Amino acid sequence: MTRTVYVNGEYLPEDQAMVSVFDRGFLMADAVYEVVSVLDGKLLDFAGHMARLTRSLDALSMDDPLTEDEYLEAHRQLVQRNGITDGLIYLQVSRGNPGDRDFVYPPKGTRPTVVMFTQAKPGLADAPAAKTGWQIISIEDLRWGRRDIKTVQLLYPSMAKMEAKARGADDAWLVEDGKVTEGTSNNAYIVKDGRIITRELSHDILHGITRAAVLRFAREAQMQVEERSFTLAEAQAADEAFVTSASSFVMPVVGIDGTPVGSGAVGPVATRLREIYLEESRKTAI
Ligand code: PDD
C-alpha cells in the first residue's frame, strides 16, 4: 500500500509529495520535528508533543503555521488513511522555501513547510527487546549546545548509532565532561538503591515528553527520583539502567561498554515503569 503523507495541507501519495530544493530544512537543517506514538489507533502524549513543538519553534523564532486542532486533525487523518494501529507519526516544520540559499532568514510571512508521515510498527508496545534489554556503548557528545530544541540536525546522533551498530550494540550514550547527557534519540536513566537518577533539564538534553510522564508516574508510585547528572562509571555500577522515548517507551539497558549493569538482565524498576507508562498513557491516549 502506498503511504499517504501530509505536505502543507494536502494528503498525497508518498511518491507525489514534494518539497523544494531551496527548503531551509533541506539546506540548513532549519527545521524542528516531533515523533508521536500511536497505540490502538490513538495518539500518546499528544498535548505534550504539541507543547514542545511550540517551544522549539519559539526558540528559533519560527512561525507556527497550524493550530493544535489542525495538527490533531492531520495526525488523525494520517492514522486513518494509512490504517495505523501501532506506529509513529513524524511531523516536521521547516522555515520554508525562500526561493534561494541564504544564511539570512527569509522575510516574515514566508510559509513554513509542514510535512507529516506515518511509520507502521505492528506490536510496538510488545517489542521483544524490552524483555532482553539493550547493550549501549558510550561516545563523546559532539552535538551543538541547544539540544533542548528538537531540530532535525541529527547527523551526529546518526553517526553515534552507526558506531553502536558497528560494535554490536543497540545504541550509544553521549558523554560530555565525564557525564552522560542522553542517548542518541532517548533520555538516559540509572537506578541505584531504589532511586531513579536522570540528568536534570537544561540546554544539554532534549526535554523528553516520555521522560516527563515516566517521572510523574514514578513519583506517584512513591518511587524516589533524583534529577542530576551521572558518570559512566556510576552507570556501570548501577543496579539498573534504561532509556525513554516516544518510540521505545521505557527500554531497559543491560550492558554499557561491555560491562553488565546490575545482574546483566532486565531489572524490576525498568520493567515496572514500562508497564505503568504503557498502562497510564493508553488511558489518556486520544
Ligand atoms: N527522539 N533525547 C533525544 C536526543 C531524542 O531525540 C529523543 C526523541 C528523546 C526522547 O524524547 P521523547 O520522550 O519526547 O520522545 C530524548 C525521537 C523519538 C526520534 O528522534 O525519533
TrEMBL record:
Extract one GO molecular function annotation from the record.
L-leucine-2-oxoglutarate transaminase activity
Q: Which reaction does it catalyse?
A: L-isoleucine + 2-oxoglutarate = (S)-3-methyl-2-oxopentanoate + L-glutamate; L-leucine + 2-oxoglutarate = 4-methyl-2-oxopentanoate + L-glutamate; L-valine + 2-oxoglutarate = 3-methyl-2-oxobutanoate + L-glutamate
Q: In which pathway does it act?
A: Amino-acid biosynthesis; L-isoleucine biosynthesis; L-isoleucine from 2-oxobutanoate: step 4/4; Amino-acid biosynthesis; L-leucine biosynthesis; L-leucine from 3-methyl-2-oxobutanoate: step 4/4; Amino-acid biosynthesis; L-valine biosynthesis; L-valine from pyruvate: step 4/4
A Pfam family assignment: Aminotran_4
Name the GO terms of the biological process aspect: amino acid biosynthetic process; branched-chain amino acid biosynthetic process
Keywords from the UniProt entry: Amino-acid biosynthesis, Aminotransferase, Branched-chain amino acid biosynthesis, Pyridoxal phosphate, Transferase
Entry-linked InterPro entries: Aminotrans_IV, Aminotrans_IV_CS, Aminotransferase-like, BCAT-like_C, BCAT-like_N, Class-IV_PLP-Dep_Aminotrnsfr
Task: List GO terms (cellular component aspect).
Answer: cytosol
Write down the EC number.
2.6.1.42
Q: Which cofactor does it need?
A: pyridoxal 5'-phosphate
Taxonomic superkingdom: Bacteria
Q: Can you tell me which family this protein belongs to?
A: Belongs to the class-IV pyridoxal-phosphate-dependent aminotransferase family.
Role played: Acts on leucine, isoleucine and valine.
Record-given protein name: Probable branched-chain-amino-acid aminotransferase
Please report the organism this UniProt entry assigns to the protein.
Paracoccus alkanivorans
